[in-house]
Specification:
The complex is a heterodimer. Chain A is mostly beta strands. Chain A is built from no helices and 11 strands. Chain A has strands at about 5, 10-15, 20, 25, 30-40, 45-50, 60-65, 70-75, 85-90, 95-100, 100-105. The radius of gyration of chain A is 13 Å and the shape is globular. Chain B has strands at about 5, 10-15, 20-25, 30-35, 45-50, 55, 65-70, 75-80, 85-95, 105, 110-115. In chain B, β7 and β8 (about 75-80) form a beta hairpin. Classes of the chains: A mainly beta, B mainly beta.
């Protein structure tokens, strides 16, 4: 069975500090992983997907199949990064399994 | 385009009743997926429809059903409501059926269902 675990419910960092959101997954097939973000009073939206290998808004995420992890990182957090972040795993091509989410607060 | 729209915004129902939630996808999108998000958890996949056909469903009882209309809008129906059905129901649309082909899912604002 597929499962996504985000061990931190809350994460608080100071502006300009690095931020790392942890995501671990279990899946017997070839994983496709995503990070979604939900800003205050906005809709859930895609931040990045591992297959595109892009840096979006300064965020990067590397798929580590050995550790079954897909941690999200940003070297210098900004106040506008405060949001809820969800890690998600795609299985059977079109189904998404989400983690429970991590609320990030960036303090000035 | 207003993006994915859902109606109603909020809904209060009593145990045992039936509810219908509606979703209009982004213009040109042919795929609609439904998710249930219980407070404190991430969204959980319920259904996906593509070109009016059900592509698959998640681990939900038969009380949950859905359909997609010729204009690609969709309805989610839940019968015999239980207290545990209280949740935010999200709809997402995409151009095509699969995430592996690079299709992105765009989410609506959700319908908040409260069962008393």
């Amino acid at each position: 069975a597929q499962r996504v675990t985000q061990p931190e419910k809350l994460l608080s960092v100071f502006k300009g500090a690095p931020v790392e959101l942890k995501c671990n997954y279990s899946y017997s097939g070839s994983p496709e992983l995503f990070w979604y973000v939900q800003y205050s009073r906005q809709r859930l939206q895609l931040l990045l997907r591992h297959i595109s290998r892009e840096s979006i808004k300064g965020f990067t995420a590397d798929l580590n199949k050995g550790e079954t992890s897909f941690h999200l990182k940003k070297p210098f957090a900004q106040e506008e990064d405060s949001a809820m972040y969800y890690c998600a795993l795609s299985w059977n091509d079109y189904k998404l399994s989400f983690g429970a989410g991590t609320t990030v607060t960036v303090r000035a | 385009d207003a993006g994915v729209t859902q109606s109603p915004t909020h809904l209060i129902k009593t145990r045992g009743q039936h509810v219908t939630l509606r979703c209009s996808p982004i213009s040109g999108h042919k795929s609609v997926s439904w998710y249930q998000q219980v407070l404190g958890q991430g969204p959980q996949f319920i259904f996906q429809y593509y070109e009016k056909e059900e592509r698959g469903r998640g681990n939900f009882p038969d009380r949950f059903s859905a359909r997609q209309f010729p204009n690609y809008s969709s309805e989610l129906n839940v019968n015999a409501l239980l207290l545990g059905d209280s949740a935010l129901y999200l709809c997402a649309s995409s151009l095509g059926p699969g995430l592996a082909n690079g299709y992105e899912q765009y989410f609506g604002p959700g319908t908040r269902l409260t069962v008393t």
